[in-house]
Predict the 3D structure of the following.
Amino acid sequence: MFPLRDSEQSGSTPFVTVGLILVNLLAFFYELSLDDFSLNHFLAEWGTVPRNFEFVDVFTSMFLHAGWMHVIGNIWFLWIFGDNIEDILGHSSYLVFYLLCGLVGGLLHVMFNPNSAVPAIGASGAISGVMGAYLMRFPRSRIHTLLFFFIFATTLEVPALLMIGYWFVVQLFSGFGHLAMAAGDQGGTAWFAHIGGFVAGMALIRILPTRASGRVRQEFRWK
């Protein structure tokens, strides 16, 4: 299932979400400007390498990506779900929330892959946190979703609870299945970064102060 848009309107301009998207794109375009040797060195220096773990790399790795599909997929999910979470948290708190989710996701990846020498990169941990928060606050929102059936495709509106819940179950099975195959120190998708970020988002949205959406506040003022 691939989300196309959601039914939950935001009542404020998502400055931080747009800014995060731009930073991710600028970083990716910089990666494209490098030759193969320089790119490998750059990713090893600024990605999260569990075997040579450095705390700052968890943050820098959030803005690096492995290819066009990786970066486009991440910024698309951020665009769909991020504006609503930014709306209810406020711009500053949302940025802190985003970075904390990415931090937890990165640390959980390191915990489950302590001997890996492969740089982990991508905003998926932080964006998973945004999705976890969205699930908690907007479970009944309708997600216009693209569904694939072998060579056929169709669109369908599904509740956020179903779409995001299904996504998280896939991450859980994939992550623990990856460990069961003794592949924890190899390359591939950082499943536990997704899991850690998602759970962090679910928890933080219950702890951080939130406000009514801008759309709800505007409707209230005009009554």
Summary: Confidence is low (pLDDT under 50) at residues 216-223.
